[in-house]
Write a structure and sequence with these properties.
heterotrimer, A mainly alpha (125), B alpha/beta (356), C mainly alpha (152), B: 356 residues, alpha/beta, Peroxisomal Thiolase, Chain A, domain 1, six-stranded mixed sheet, 11 helices, globular, C: 152 residues, extended
């Protein structure tokens, strides 16, 4: 297939899947009394579950950023790390594996937040 | 908006069998008639930029162009705002700060710190009061009682609230991207202050009704109007029953910060109690912002009713448009922990009656 | 009439008069904002892959999320992330950018109490549930997974 067309299809899939996942979360907000924090945790656990039963990887190959950018991807990545390090060094590896795999992202978030805090102040709306 | 069928009292059938007077026998009297009614001698309202752009903008005495007022923190800005309101009101009354015998003040922050820090600067006896957004009427009632009994000559009542500090105390960080439901309300940035004197020729506070804590079991922290409307109803019914008055005996009936939804619910509730509020009823929260300002159901916060009362309402009383005004401020008495612990939202409403 | 009955009726009444969020409208907004966030992340990932083809897929993914996290935090600092979020709803808080925004906003908000007692203490007030549940349940899931697959 034409590589340009292939790229366009990939991007369309990413857009549609990412959008639908977010729309489902929005539907939960409107229709139930769940707070955003609870919904985040629910989707995170969906990611943990998908990776735990081993179906996340094929989904990720198919949907790419569409499924890995929503918080589902974070949950799956934590679980992936825990499983990998568990395989390497045994039971104790599962306790820190998730953090090791995601250390770059979490570290960036903490450091960037800290830097931004030094520069900017919140504004009244 | 599904509010077309409102104001008839027919679509709220939750009190059908029993009237409230029979259900809760009124043991004590809630309404006080002041023997020596105090006069409103000075007043001042300070609001933030957003409120200044609203429909009532031209009535407010001072509109800030910067909600932070050049201070380092929003808390300091709130203190500065309340100080400005107090100074302005004392000035307006023609008194000096040393003539003030008592300051009664409150706000929305933990341990009413804003008022405490403001009072620190004045070296005047001070009472800090809290009943959330109905703080202003609680302060007015206390002050009227003191003056009517002859204990004090000049008493100053003030409240303040600030959008940024209230958000932090009750909700999320300012820059946090959260979507508010369409029935949410917007905390008013502002401060209001009233100076009451035993003598003078200003409008009189002739009566006051002390509210009871009413809880109809609502739990939605965003839907304050629905939580507070029953409290307003209870106090309103108490005032009307005990004085034998009808809504038509008042030229204007105002509630504090029920917002659009809450004031519609209150109309329904009062209709069911047999009182038609009609055109003479307005809500400060409903008036302070207009639809284009994206404030959902309108304003809330202690300053919402305090600023509108001290500017628009008293202006209209002084120029003779309204002779008798009943002012009900409503407050929700929860905090964030109590709601996470599964408690419902208890609410209160205090009232004062102002006559020209 | 007993109080719980009255409260139940009041609740029903309030539910009948409370305006609802326009369902299709807000779903559409969260759909396109959420989708767009994912597309931007995909685009950044593809650019990195084109520039550094021999980095390996895992590292590319890490760099991509680092980039969008930094962008989201910068937007938060400049004060317009919450404008997008008010429209996007779940479309803006569900992607990893929402996680970054929650962290940066809490950290900025409590700057006034000082960098130690304010920022450092309160940084995780909003994202705490995600981090804690993520770590706990990923470990549990991994242990179960490894017990079943015999990886331990």
């Amino acid at each position: 297939m034409n590589p340009v067309l292939e790229n366009i299809i990939t991007y369309l899939i990413v857009f549609a899947v990412g959008g639908v996942i977010c729309a489902i979360a929005q539907l939960l907000i409107i229709k139930t009394k769940l707070t955003p924090a609870r919904i985040l945790v629910i989707f995170l656990l969906v990611g943990v579950f998908l990776e735990g039963i081993g179906v996340y990887k094929p989904l990720n190959d198919l949907f790419q950023a569409g499924i890995s950018v929503p918080i589902i991807g974070f949950g799956a990545s934590l679980t992936r790390g825990a499983i990998e390090y568990g395989k390497q060094i045994g039971l104790l590896g599962t306790l820190g594996g998730g953090l090791i795999r995601n250390a770059l992202g979490i570290g960036t978030a903490v450091i960037a937040s800290y830097l931004v805090t030094l520069i900017f102040s919140p504004k009244s709306k | 908006m599904s509010s077309v069928t409102l104001h008839t009292g027919k679509n709220c059938a939750f009190l059908t069998n029993t009237r409230i007077a029979e259900k809760v026998p009124n043991k004590g009297k809630q309404t006080i008639t002041y023997k020596n009614p105090p006069h409103i001698q000075g007043r001042m309202s300070v609001v933030g930029a957003k409120e200044g752009r609203g429909p009532l903008g031209k009535y407010f005495h001072k509109v800030l162009d910067d909600d932070k007022m050049g201070e380092k923190t929003f808390e300091n800005a709130e203190i500065k705002m309340l100080t400005a309101a107090i100074d302005g009101a004392v000035n307006d009354s023609g008194l000096k700060t040393k003539d003030i015998d008592l300051i009664i003040s409150g706000d929305l922050l933990n341990q009413v710190t804003t008022s405490n820090y403001v009072a620190r600067e004045y070296h005047v006896p001070y009472l800090g009061v809290y009943s959330a957004c109905s703080t202003m009427t609680e302060a007015l009632n206390l002050a009227s009682t003191f003056i009517s009994a002859g204990h004090f000559e000049n008493v100053l009542c003030s409240t303040a609230s600030h959008f940024a500090t209230a958000e932090r105390t009750y909700r999320y960080p300012l820059e946090y991207g959260c979507q508010r439901p369409p029935y949410a309300q917007w905390t008013v940035t502002g401060a209001g202050c009233t100076v009451l004197s035993a003598s003078g020729n200003g409008p009189k506070i002739t009566m006051g009704t002390v509210g009871r804590v009413i809880d109809f079991g609502t739990t939605d922290l965003n839907n304050m109007g629905a939580a507070m409307a029953p409290a307003a109803m209870d106090t309103m019914v108490a005032l009307f029953r005990e004085t034998g008055a009808k809504p038509s005996d008042f030229d204007l009936i105002i509630t504090g910060d029920l917002g659009k939804l809450g004031s519609d619910i209150l109309r329904d509730l009062m209709m069911e109690q047999g009182y038609n509020l009609g055109q003479r009823y307005i809500d400060c929260g409903n008036m302070i912002f207009d639809v284009t300002q994206k404030c959902y159901q309108g304003g809330s916060g202690a300053a919402c009713s305090a600023t509108v009362f001290n500017s628009f309402v008293l202006d209209k009383v002084l120029d003779g448009t309204y002779g008798t005004v009943a002012y009900f401020a409503t407050g929700a008495l929860m905090n964030t922990q109590s709601c996470y612990q599964g408690e419902t939202i208890p609410c209160i409403s205090h009232a004062v009656v102002i006559e020209r | 009439m007993d109080e719980s009955k009255r409260n139940q009726r009041y609740e029903d009444y309030v539910a009948s008069v409370t305006p609802k969020t326009g369902t299709w409208r807000s779903l559409w907004h969260s759909f396109w904002i959420g989708g767009l966030t994912c597309v931007i992340a995909q685009g950044i990932g593809d650019i990195y892959y084109a520039l550094f083809p021999n980095l390996g897929k895992d590292l590319i993914v890490s760099f991509t999320s680092m980039t969008i996290i930094t962008l989201a935090i910068l937007f938060t600092g400049l004060g317009f992330f919450d404008v997008i979020a008010r429209k996007g709803g779940a479309g803006s808080f569900l992607p990893i950018t929402g996680f970054a925004n929650a962290m940066a906003s809490a950290s900025m908000e409590f700057k006034t109490e000082g960098l130690i007692m304010g920022t450092s203490v309160k940084m995780f007030t909003v994202v705490g549930p995600v981090v804690v549940n993520g770590i706990v349940w990923s470990a549990v899931a991994a242990i179960i997974n490894l017990l079943i697959t015999g990886g331990l």
